[in-house]
Amino acid sequence: MPNRLFLSLGLTLTLIASATAGVSRIEVLSSVPFADGKLFGDVGAYMRITGRFYGELDPNLAANKGIVDLAKAPRNARGKIEYSAEFDILRPADAAKGNGTLLYDVNNRGRKVALRNFNDAPASNALDKPEDAGDGFLMRNGFTIVWSGWIPGLPKGGNLMHLDVPSAKGIQQPVWDEFLFNEHGQTSARLTFAAASIDQSKARLTARDRNADTPSTIQQAAWEFVDANTIRLLPAGTPFRPGAIYQLTYMAKDPPVAGIGFAATRDLIAFLRYDMSEQNPLVGMTKVAIGFGESQSGRYLRDMLYRGFNETENGRAVFDGLQPDIASARIFLNYRFAQPNRLYSSGFGFLGYPDASFPFSYARTKDPASGKQDSLLARCTARKNCPKIIQTVSSTEYWQGGHSLNTTDPLGERDLALPANVRIYHIAGTQHVPFQIMPKGVCTGAPNLAVDGRPAQRALLLALDRWVKTGATPPPSRYPRIADHTLVPMRELKLPQVAGFTAPRGPNPMTQFNYGKHLAQGVIDVVPPSPVKKPYVVLVPAVDADGNETGGLRLPEQAVPAQTSTGWSLRSDQAGGAGELCYLDGQAIPFAPTQGSREATKDPRASMVERYRDRATYLTKVRESAHALAKDGYLLPEDIERIVARADHNAKFENGAQ
């Protein structure tokens, strides 16, 4: 059997591969049973295969010409540019029992996401314990899961997925870093790139309290380069101010050719799909490929598609389906001196990064500033190879990521008609991820852990799999719209007056910037970029009298609420930037248990007893909501009782109303 050699324990082989789609060599470093050989239903056991692949890129090929500075990288004797990256594969031990789908989990800053997201597994990059399989959802359904490195320069260790790329030699220019510390006592800041010079006359450090403030220059006597990679305030030991936004402009040289990160994914998936030699550990197993990415990695998928990397060097499809999650922008990757690990411009801090810019939508729109018409699907539409797309977003994306611009015109005047190959589902009342992100005390209120969108994502992954294989359409999109008044300007939002619950001033306005004349070539000439006025209008989901969103996909914990749940929170007084949007956390404000306790705190929202009478009635309504969503294809029947149990755990009734 062609795959037999990959199933031997402790195998270390270097295999000379064909030149399919840029992969020149595959090195398998280990091939072992996954999860101690656990059986996953009818699919059985899984194998884990790890190693490194090596690629070569011809800078003269049309498919590679869009990679910024590729032509400036060193070449081998064949005139090609070399790179290499780590890979990690989970596949059925019996190839015949797989479902034929390669699920590529775009790592997030080197970390694996899919098993936590779909299998409810603990976060782990090592994948060396049985519990790393979680509930086995992906395995029970026969998916082959693939990871690989795509971000140059990640730190070693932590089982992160690495990519090694060459640098473009002989280039030197100004770059900028931004630092925002949320905890007290931080006395040094590490630079993204090594400074070409530690001469302070060639650098500038500024600070501001809020995005809109004019930055103040910190005098040279008040800071210094510790070395080419680090700065500190003076005198030594002086901490940076929590919540202040520091920005350093300095000279850097020899940027990594970061855009190879797109080609590396393209080339590996092409090899695993189309190479029919015994050197391919998935030979004959892959009928279709789906790309999944969460947050940063979802933005990667959107940009990969927009820039034309969803086709191989010879024009074949890379991914048949894409599932970007909690991602409304693109990514700062295919640029000179790229910083893909940055959060894109948000409501507080992280200003100036070019990944939150026009076009925002899969639908074709006109930029009112430039007059340009464009869409994320422009290239694949022209080449007639667009994938099927299911995108899920949380409430946070509307507040921090301007997600309304994905479904409205840039002026926020009308809804867009999404292309037939696109579905968008707003998981109402959710924060960016279902666990706390910010350190305790930075944001006001408790983080929103009340509504977990992952059960919907499981159902939608299977729907996407069916869509790309059989054409069976997934359930209709569900997201807030202007037409039905579930998507509104901030001035129309009416939040309940609850103690400790303060309304934000508004969503992130998606400030745009002047980057100079060569941005289209991936070069930023204006450093730091200067803000410019662009007439984009960001809208937010409408809410009911409880402060809960009325549009989108309302999961049982939000449709039958025990709390007000939001995708936004505000920075606290102690954290600095008080009242500004607090990164990616939301808030959950439970309803009072009884009328008496509600009235004691002057809470206008009905109590749990007033709404549901008792716990049994409440759980019946939660179960009914879950069944209705499962009937319509938004949940899986297997997840209904887990959702009910979670609601039971979170609901608060006083004694006598249990």
Overview of the molecule:
- The protein has 658 residues and is α+β, with helices and mostly antiparallel strands.
- Among the domains are: 4-165 and 258-470, Rossmann fold, CATH 3.40.50; 172-253, no CATH class.
- Helices cover 16% and strands 20% of the residues.
- The protein has 12 helices and 26 strands.
- The strands form 7 sheets. Strands 1, 2, 3, 4, 5, 6, 7, 15, 16, 19 and 20 form an 11-stranded mixed beta sheet that branches. A 4-stranded antiparallel beta sheet has the order 8-14-10-11, with no helix packed on it. The protein has a 3-stranded antiparallel beta sheet with strand order 9-13-12, with no helix packed on it.
- Helix 11 (615-631) runs antiparallel to helix 12 (640-650).
- The termini are far apart.
Short description:
This protein is an alpha+beta fold and 658 residues long. The protein has helices spanning 114-118, 137-140, 260-274, 296-306, 378-383, 395-400, 454-470, 556-559, 595-600, 608-612, 615-631, 640-650; strands spanning 13-16, 23-33, 46-57, 81-92, 101-105, 144-148, 163-164, 172-180, 188-190, 204-208, 216-217, 223-227, 230-233, 245-253, 288-294, 321-325, 365-366, 373-374, 388-393, 422-426, 487-488, 512-514, 530-532, 540-541, 563-566, 587-590.
Mind describing the biggest β-sheet? Answer: 11 strands, mixed
**From the alpha-carbon coordinates, what is the Rg to the nearest angstrom?**
25 Å
* Mean pLDDT across residues: 94
Low-confidence stretches: 1-21
Proportion of β residues? 15-25%
CATH class of one domain: Alpha Beta
Q: What coarse outline follows from CA principal-axis ratios? A: globular
Distance between the termini: 60 Å
Structure classification: alpha+beta
CATH superfamily of one domain: Alpha/Beta hydrolase fold, catalytic domain
- CATH architecture designation of one domain: 3-Layer(aba) Sandwich
CATH topology of one domain: Rossmann fold
Helical content stands at 10-25%
Number of strands: 26
Q: How many helices in DSSP terms?
A: 12
